[in-house]
Fold LVIVD repeat-containing protein.
Amino acid sequence: MKKNLCLILIAAIVTLSSCSDDKDDVSGEEYLVATPVTTDLKRFKEEAVEVTEPVPINESGKIYAYQDYVFVNDVNRGFHVIDNNNPVNPEAVSFIKLEGNHDISIKNDRLYADSYGDLVIMNISDINNITMVQRIEDAIYQQFWCTVGFDVDWPQADFYDYGDFDASKEAIVGWEVKSQRLSEEELKTKYGVNDSNVDIALNDSAAESISGGDTGQGGSLARFKIVEDYLYAVEWSSISVFDISDLDNPKTLEDVYVNGAIETIYNQGDILFVGGTQGMYIYDISSPEKPEYISEFVHGTACDPVVVDGDYAFVTLRGENSCGGTESGLYIVDVSNLANPELEKFYPLKGPYGIGFKDNLLFVCDGDDGLKVYDKTDVNDLKLVSHFKDIITYDVIPLDDSLLMIGDKELYQYKYLNNDISLLSTFSLK
């Protein structure tokens, strides 16, 4: 089983919250202390999975296309299943509650998903009767996954006392906050406070940091990728590898560690292109059970999805907020020599997210600035052929006959028209 990094995060929170206000006499002061209300972790995870009637989406995540269906991630909570047999009039089928979920991938009616760091396998051969196959504990771990329910609010408190909480066996489902009188000695021994001139409150950012077959297709923001009989899942700084030749009983293989924080994964044949906050990493999977490092293209710190067409990788960088200070834009990287990728051209953008291509059309989701469609015949002279404004855009999936795009609680579909596209339908997930 993988090391439970949640314990490290909890230790960090205790340290961050172990501070007191500037007082003349700390001894005997009253403090608000929050203690976790817990339940059995195994039961908690089992109850975190349920198939229900369609519900309004809370926060749009990634999209995934499989046969006549579209799956839309509801960040941390599961995914919405949409019947897209008629793209002009899609219909909601169900909501698969799967807490702690960020991504999915599907092969031959077996759906693979993450949930609180576990790998969950479902049978979707009957879309109206989706069933669980199995759950492999601790198979995957993401930086911010933790055994704290996503519907559990962090309370206002001076200290967070986890006592003998065991993240490998327990899940936090609530908090109990009580006023306690703590002496200076208790502050030092229990919470590590040794300087009364530090702010006591747990800062918000710390709380938020916890808080070959019939295969489907994901967008450029995907963290899961199925290539033949193998599933690759990117973690915070490594690639988890699974042999799924037996679809119902995947084998967990050895992780491959990456020299940096990574976010997305894309393949062109036997080559994996992994997007990270500091660069693009290239791996050879001709021996699929053990990806071999080839090279990397380093850029400034930014959020970084990547797609590849022939000799060029198209990388969108979003340098804002937590993504870093790099200028937002489109990097076109020459990867004709995989051992030595080089920047070919840079185009500034507002705040891009996902990216995709179909033949000579390049689709860029530029966040609040809408969907931009370019003719990429000449990568050194991209031509803007369409700009769909006044919409928020996150990610795209170019299908054979149409383009899927997820925005803010809206699913958009576009029809290809020679060197242009036109809106086919809009489906609200609200």
Observations:
- The chain is about 5% helix and 45% strand.
